[in-house]
Each structure stands twice: as C-alpha cells, then as structure tokens.
Amino acid sequence: MLTKTASPTTITLWNGREIPRLGMGCWAIGGPFYAGDTPLGWGEVDDNESVEAINRAIALGIRFFDTASNYGAGHSEEVLGRAVGNRDDIIVATKFGFATDPETKQAIGAFADEAFIRRSVETSLRRLKRDRLDLLQFHINDFPLEESVAVFDTLEALRTEGKIDAFGWSTDYPDRAARHAGRAGFVSVQHTMNVFDPVPEMISVIEGKGLISINRGPLAMGLLTGKFTADKAVGAKDVRGAALPWMVYFKDGRMAPEFAARLDAVRDLLTSGGRTLTQGALAWLLARSPRTFPIPGFRTVAQVEENAGALEKGPLSAEIMAAIDAALGHG
User: S-S: 218 plus which of 5, 108, 119, 294, CB 3.0-4.6 Å?
Assistant: First the structure.
C-alpha cells in the first residue's frame, strides 16, 4: 500500500519505491478494436511514434505505465513490451477480465474464472516481455461483490507464486473498492476521476483504507485538453463516437454541450500559474488528495511532454481548488 507522500509530486508505492506522481495510460496506443461495429479504441496509431512517446516519458522521469490485456486486442501490451521490456526501473500495470481476438480485433466477452485469469496473466507476461507483473487489476467494473472473493483468492495465489507483485480493482463503485482492501497485496483502485467528477465517496474509501487512487479519465477523455470545439468530431474508429451508456463527455462524436459549459466556468482557474488546460486538470487531481495518481493517455511525444509538465508546476493552490469547487457546485 501507499505508505507516505514524500512530496506533492512524488508517491511511495507498495514496494517502497518513490516515483513521480503521474503515470501514462496506454489505452489509445493499442489502436482499433471493436465490439461488432462499435469502436472501442481511439483510432489508428503509429507504433513507432508510440514507442518514441514512451521513451520520451521515461526520459522525463515517468516510471508508471498502465495498460490492459484487451486494449487493441492485446496490441497495447505488445507496444509497451517493445518499448520497456523487463526494465526493473519501470512499473507496469495491466488488467484482465475482457477477452479479445487479436486476429479479428473483436471483443469476445467478460470472464473472471481462475483458468481465464491464469491464461490472461501468462499472455500479458509474454506480450509485455516481463518476468512478473508489477500490478494486476481486475477490469470488470460492476462485477458482483459476492462472486468477487474467488477472483481475489486467485490473485492472492498468483502473488504468492511470484507472477504478480500486487493487485487492485478497476471499479467506480466504492463498495467494491472497499471489499478486498484488507487483503495483503491489494494496493490500488483505478477509477474515473477528474475536475468534473470529484468522487468524494471513492476518495473517502481510498484514504481510509490506505490505497492508491489511480485516476483514469483524468482529462475527461480529451475534453479537458481544450482541443475540442462544438463542431469538432472524433474519427470513425474512435470510441468517443460510440453510443455507449458510459460515454458522457461526448455525444455523437462531439463534446457534450453541458460539459462545454462547465469547462468554460473553470478554464481560467485551471490555467493559472502558466499552466496549459491539460496541466491544470492534472494539477487539480494532484491537489485533490495525497493518494491520487493520474494516468492521462497519450499518442504523441508532444502529449507526453505536456502531461509531464504538470509535475513541474505542482498541485493547484487551496484557493484555486476552492474557487473551482464553487464554480462547479462541488460540495
């Protein structure tokens, strides 16, 4: 578990290693994959550019990369493995639970039985070129609590066997975050969190249990970069154009009007201190709790450099945080 915060921009992990308090999310670099005709990736990618961006992140001090076995039907893990391999100075986190066909790039279904988990771990180790997975996360957000005991029993066994170093749950439900927090090796919860969605109940659980809050969607799927206007649409192979129930920030491939208005209300506050909008959104997360750990996505070197720049400027001040709360009506 997290033992302390050494400074506002570093965090000490379960293994005692102190690293910068920012990781990189690798969903986008996996490239296209689908559920039928519905896109689940972020469009086409250039693997060489992805590797260059990962190397640039490492050069800038980033030491944590988060991926999943289904991103790009396994391609994200392969690209990360190509760039990082078995380097012991890099923390690699991945997830299991969703099966995909690497040939057709199609989603097959969700699984959580022991045999599937063990196969998924071996596949991830091979793709990532790792001897051990630093952090393995259960990817099924709403998996029934009463059935989850067997899942985490398996993860405990894998930890004992040396296949994984630690484990967690990727879930937006505080009761699921709390359910297995007392197990040795349960160190983190990955959940949606950003300026628009401060998730106070989840943060209360995480702080109370001494976990790490890995923040997915820290830039609201790109809205908090400021690069979208009302008439700018995403590409045909982009998940943000899909009619999925959890796709709240975009509607019909364009930013949702209600979020555009909320962004306008805090734009000047987030860009205080010479920050870009992206850096302000990440700085908000750094200020939200000493246990938050944002993992913004990336596809280019420029995006990595902008993300990493948030660390140089540090968390937002208490005054700015209070002003943002007031502007957005956060309690």
Answer: 294
User: Does the predicted model carry a pTM greater than 0.85?
Assistant: yes
pLDDT tens for each residue of 281-305: 999 999 999 999 999 999 999 999 9
- Rounded to the nearest 10 degrees, what angle do helices 277-288 and 301-313 cross at? 50
Buried b (16+ CB within 10 A) or exposed e, 16-49: eeebbbbbbbbbbbbbbbbbeeebbbbbebeeee
Q: Nearest 5°: CA angle at 148, between 142 and 149?
A: 160
Report the candidate in 50, 136, 132, 46 with the shortest Cα–Cα distance to residue 97: 136
For residue range 66-95, what is the model confidence (pLDDT) as tens digits? Answer: 999 999 999 999 999 999 999 999 999 999
Q: Average pLDDT, stretch 112-135? A: 98
How far apart CA 24 and CA 30 sit, in angstroms, is 13
Please check whether residue 61 is in contact with residue 311, taking contact to mean a CB–CB distance below 8 angstroms. yes
- Residue 230 burial (CB count, 10 A): 8
- Cα separation, 92 vs 234, in Å, equals 29
Helix axes 277-288, 257-270, angle to 10 degrees: 80
